[in-house]
Design goal:
heterotrimer, A mainly alpha (646), B mainly alpha (99), C mainly alpha (102), A: 646 residues, mainly alpha, 25 helices, 8 strands, 52% helix, B: 99 residues, 6 helices
């Protein structure tokens, strides 16, 4: 056996490992990185993609038309167990209404402990609210988007295509969405601890509808009807479970690619010994040297981000990829694990219906009181349990996560729904060290912050990571173009890499831009329009592959970069022309999220066009002439990767 | 607070770069060679690391401990990228501030 | 060692076999080690709050896999690469067994 060995220096073997672990799935990783980076602005993208909502006015919390919202809820859902009002914020100017029907069975007081909805924010790892055993009622099923994790989960399983699950995504993504472990859910479905809800579930599952939900203009209380679109959710879902296959397959593929990334990162660090010496070094205009510098710089300068995002990506898939941990600790009984996590969360009593009617207290006053208590931090949502009853309880939750280490808990305040008197709120448990680490990994990956600065930094680091992958792929090509420049034809493997580079780097940008164009060009009442937006994305991407094969490499790069650049740069115009709020308006009205989208599209488009221009003008030095590889142009693909921000 | 932290990080890195031989040559190309002496460079390195450390408290003040530290890392990445680009194309614009 | 014939005498083929075996070792052996390690750590780490042991075991599992992959390619000889995976695997296996029969 030992005769197969070749002892090689460590650096050489690590270099081999770095090259091949990076290259093998590099194109997929690039797509994952780009779509994942865009997902930091998923709410903003969804809002942009529903121009019908753009006329929502920006108002201060005390001027929100609570009375109109409550009147609407009273009309639409007079018997609901709980109403939820999602307040406008920097990431979404609209007011969202949703409600939860009373449980069909079991309303015996005391039987159901209710956890303040959403107290535990985000995570599937902890299994969030697995109330299944307890109140597996219709209520859970119908819980609407903003906070019904139960409903969400049901929907996810039910609706295969990730993005279809939110047929009328309303521009209001709750921060509570999670990447829950599928198999865990399935297991929970398969063995409900108390079997009650089988039939109900069937019955609910048929329609594939989400909970009822309304979107209002916060100032006037007028209802806004957004078009059917997957919105930013398509890119978000794509980045961790791809599309068009069983989602468990998609997750495995992305999970394995993430492991490759992890190996490539760490072996890259080992190879690149002179990290600190070359820290700021970038030598433009020197062919392969420049590419390598660019690759090193984009890797090293945000290395902490790359390591964290990759590792946390793996940990988010922990249930799927490291199932033995759960099996050995809980003998495969995932519910026991969830129950243990759950037991630690603060519990508050569910109010019992008194049967007497009483008017609801003034919400604006509660919001003001909560903001004062929180030192000005905004309120994210209001949940009213037993609305209209004398025992109503109002719970106000803070917007966003104030800390990385206790991420499952959003600060909340509870009030008596009639008198407005403050009720005791169960104290948030201090997380242990392991939980704090897990929570920080989770929240850093997902960027659920109340303020924009950390999210922008994550976004920019994601741009850097996309540049890192793109430049790494191009280094491979450039290095080999140089070696084979004497040959008449590049070997088929090099040609393959070249085509994949073009179509998966420049082509992806075309596809993303086309996706946004499709959002505006497909009529708002077109049947299955949300699906067609996604099909447009994949059709465009497929075309770029054909194009990359058909054209000479340099021409293919120039044409695709120019196409993507033009389409991106024109997005603000198509936005204005198809019913969206134009740039001057969005800036003037303080809709930063809309202006941010348009300005990013403009900047990215400009960057792509510049890249196209540079590639076109680039005359390869004589020794590269035979390959005609535009990748030897230093500026170009750097930009194009930057355009990932599309 | 954010801007303060970012500025400190940027000038911290600028000082560190000016303390490295290769970049000192670029930045102070037209200056007397005393600007590039090892002793001066060592002082700059020291000042640079100090500035980086000083940038941490404002970030924590603005965002709380856990998020503040992450934001500080983000600023490190942002500022060093900006600096790398400046050093590649216009290294001398740093000269005046760095003395 | 004497029966390997022409395969081994050809340096290119030999190199490919070497790389192929190391890749297999890294991917499957490494993952197996990670699964075993995660199982042992989740059950054996002394945490009062059991989910903490599970979460930590998952994280360490990925790090184990990473280390195993690096080791599989860094080790000077294939034998050492395999041993480097087998020894910790045996350790975790025994740990798990001891927990089981405790």
């Amino acid at each position: 056996m030992t005769t197969f060995d070749q002892a090689r220096p460590l650096r050489q073997s690590m270099s081999w490992l770095h090259t091949w672990s990076g290259l093998t799935l590099g194109w997929l990783l690039f797509a994952v990185y780009v779509t994942g980076t865009l997902s930091y602005f998923r709410n903003e993208i969804t809002f942009w993609m529903q121009p019908e909502l753009h006329r929502a006015q920006v108002v201060a919390p005390e001027r929100i038309a609570y009375d109109r919202a409550l009147a609407l809820l009273a009309r639409e859902a007079p018997d609901a167990q709980q109403w939820t009002i999602t307040l406008p914020g920097a990431r979404n100017p609209t007011l969202g209404l949703s409600w939860q029907s009373p449980p069909a069975e079991n309303r015996q007081p005391g039987a159901a402990r209710e956890r303040p909805a959403n107290r535990e924010g985000a995570r599937g790892e902890e299994g969030a609210r697995e109330n299944r055993g307890r109140d597996r009622g219709a209520a859970t099923r119908e819980r609407p988007g903003a906070d019904g994790e139960g409903a969400r989960r049901e929907n996810r399983e039910r609706v295969q295509a990730a993005t279809r699950e939110r047929p009328s995504a309303d521009g209001e993504e709750s921060a509570i969405d999670d990447v829950e472990p599928l198999e865990a859910t399935r297991q929970a479905e398969a063995n409900p601890p108390q079997r009650q809800a089988g039939p109900q579930r069937q019955q609910q599952g048929g329609g594939g509808h989400r909970g009822p939900r309304l979107v209002l203009d916060p100032a006037s209380g007028e209802t806004l009807e957004g078009r059917a679109t997957a919105g930013g959710n398509f890119l978000y879902r794509f980045h961790f479970e791809l599309y068009g296959m069983d989602r468990i397959w998609g997750r495995w593929i992305v999970g394995i690619a993430t492991m490759f990334m992890f190996v490539a990162l760490v072996s890259g660090v080992i190879v690149h010994r002179r990290i600190f010496k070359d820290f700021f070094t970038f030598r433009p205009g020197k062919g392969k040297r420049s590419w390598l510098d660019g690759h090193n710089a984009s890797s090293v300068l945000s290395l902490p981000f790359h390591l964290i995002i990759t590792f946390s990506g793996l940990v988010l898939f922990g249930h799927m990829m490291m199932p033995t941990a759960f099996q050995s600790a809980y003998q495969g009984n995932f519910l026991a694990y969830r129950e243990a996590m759950r037991a630690r969360m603060p519990q508050s009593e569910t109010p019992r219906p008194s049967g007497e009617r009483a008017p609801l207290t003034d919400l604006a006053a509660l919001v003001a009181a909560a903001q004062q208590t929180w030192g000005g931090k905004p309120v994210g949502s209001i949940a009213i349990t037993l609305p209209g009853d004398r025992n109503a309880v109002v719970e106000l939750r803070q917007m966003g996560f104030p800390s990385l280490t206790n991420g499952r808990n959003v600060p909340a305040l509870r009030f008596n729904g009639v008198t407005g008197e403050r009720l005791a709120t169960p104290a948030l448990p201090e997380p242990g060290a392991v939980q704090a680490i897990g929570s920080a990994l989770n929240l850093l990956h997902r960027g659920f912050f109340a303020t924009p600065v950390p999210r922008w930094l994550l976004f920019l680091s994601g741009v850097g990571g996309s540049l890192m992958i793109a430049s790494g792929l191009l280094v491979w090509s450039v290095a080999r173009a140089r070696k084979t420049s004497g040959a008449a034809r590049a070997p088929w493997g090099h040609r393959l890499v070249e085509v994949l580079n073009i179509a998966s780097i420049a082509g992806l940008m075309v596809a993303i831009a086309v996706h946004f164009w499709a959002n505006r060009l497909i009529p708002a009442d077109w049947p299955a329009r949300a699906d067609w937006e996604i099909r447009a994305f994949f059709i465009a991407w497929a075309v770029t592959f054909v194009h990359a094969i058909a054209r000479r490499p340099k021409a293919a790069w120039v044409e695709q970069l120019a196409c993507a650049g033009g389409l991106s740069a024109l997005l603000p115009l198509i936005n204005a022309a198809t019913g969206g709020l134009a740039l001057p308006g969005s800036i003037g009205r303080g809709l930063g999220l809309l202006a941010g989208f348009d300005l990013c599209a403009l900047a990215i488009g400009a960057g792509l066009l510049f890249a196209a221009y540079k590639v076109r003008r680039h005359a390869p030095p004589a020794r590269f002439a035979a390959s005609g590889d535009p990748a030897t142009e230093p500026g170009a693909p750097l930009r194009e990767a930057a355009e990932e921000a599309a | 607070m954010n801007l303060l932290s970012l500025a400190l990080v940027f000038w911290g890195f600028a000082a560190i770069a000016a303390g490295m031989e290769r970049h000192a040559r670029d930045i102070f190309a037209a200056s007397p060679s005393s600007m590039r002496s090892p002793r001066v460079r060592r002082l700059r390195l020291l000042a640079g690391y100090l500035l980086l450390a000083l940038a941490l408290p404002p970030a924590i003040a603005a965002h709380g401990l856990s998020i503040g530290v992450s934001v500080w890392f983000g600023f490190l990445a942002l500022a060093s990228t900006a600096l790398a680009l400046i050093l590649s194309w216009r290294p001398r614009i740093l000269r005046r501030v760095l003395r | 060692m004497k029966t390997q014939g022409w395969l081994v005498s050809n340096p290119t083929v030999r190199h490919r076999i070497d790389v192929g075996l190391r890749t297999g070792l890294a991917a499957f052996g490494g993952y197996g080690l990670a699964l075993l390690g995660a199982a042992a750590l989740a059950a054996g780490l002394p945490f009062d709050f059991k989910p903490d042991a599970v979460s930590l075991a998952v994280m360490l599992g990925f790090l184990l896999h990473l280390t195993a992959v690096l080791w599989a390619f860094a080790a000077a000889t294939l034998l050492r690469a395999a041993l480097g995976l087998a020894v910790p695997a045996a350790f975790f296996g025994l740990w798990l067994l001891s927990l089981h029969y405790r």
